[in-house]
Amino acid sequence: MVSVGVIGLGVMGRTHLDAYASIDSAHVVAVADLDVSRLSGLGEISGNIEGQSRGDYDLSRVKKYAEGMDLIADPSVNLVDICLTTPLHEAYAIAALKAGKHLLVEKPVARDSDSARRIVQAASKAPGKAMCALCMRFWPGWSWLKDAVETNRYGSVRSAVFRRISEHPGGAFYSDGCLSGGGILDLHIHDTDFICHLFGVPSSVTSRGYDHGTGCIDHVTTFYDYPGVPHVVAEGGWSMSKGFGFVMQYTVRFEHATAVFQRCGTDSLILHEDGKPSTPVPLDTRMGYTHEIEYLTKCIEDNMSPELGSLESATQSLMIVEAEAESVRTGKPTAVTRYEPLRRHRSETLLQR
Q1: DSSP for 124-142?
Q2: Residues contacting 100, CB < 8 A, separation 6+
Q3: Could you write out the three-class secondary structure of 138-185?
Q4: Over the stretch 85-115, which tens digit does the pLDDT of each residue have?
Q5: Which one, of 187, 153, 152, 160, lies nearest residue 173 by Cα?
Q6: Is the full-model pTM beyond 0.85?
């Protein structure tokens, strides 16, 4: 069994705790947060998805730290789960890796791709397993889509359209684009990452969007250029009016079928297969957070690299979002740079000089 320490008990920290409460492969032994009320486990912190942050985990018997670095130093902690605000990911992730711990870091992996590269470099020298919490790769209905695309079950993909929009979550962190990165980084990156997971790295992106008050891009629509798929589009952001709630959707047209997923309270996946009656696809009722944590703990127990949530792939997705932001700024298509390890990047820079 993996002994876990969770740093940061906001919405995602508590959501991860809920996941740990439902699996047998890991046991939380310590938590850390500067907010004393959060350490008590009292109070409600709601997320944009129904079922998040329920408060299922009993914190009465775990060690409690104000400072996450003290938790990292705790010898009883094997896996450090970082659910802090995005700009803090780098410092705590690298500290955990240098301490020889396994690492799970919430998405986005870092505030920018340079920071993400430094985390990847630290992980390459560390003995622990490291993974980014890219929950949509594990989400029921989305993992189904990945399998359908890979197996060519309904023929090749002709069109894939994704939509993830909500009202603004509020709060100091989300309202400050310098911290959160705006809706494009904190919310829309889920779909950018999943599109990359499905089809690989696009050659370029063409994006349009706007700032809704954070100082960064809060609503964006992007066309992803792939030679083999004619139409790949994602719309995302948190600029909707109060009361709108949260909508997560995809519509994928294969050669021989159309798959439609929608979450608005609960998940629904309908398959419209050509020449057959439309049918609902049965889905696991557990959310992707539980599946991703089970996957990582199994990788740790089996001494396997967690490729499904690798830090490198998380960095690549972040680089695509940065290209989208550049396209919004310039009003032009932007080429996407493929991820390369930091050491090679530096050596090439020296050679160019």
Answers
A1: HT-SS-EEEE-GGGGSTTH
A2: 126, 127, 128
A3: HCCCHHHHHHHHHHCECECEEEEEEEEEEECCCCHHHHCHHHHCHHHH
A4: 999 999 999 999 999 999 999 999 999 999 9
A5: 187
A6: yes
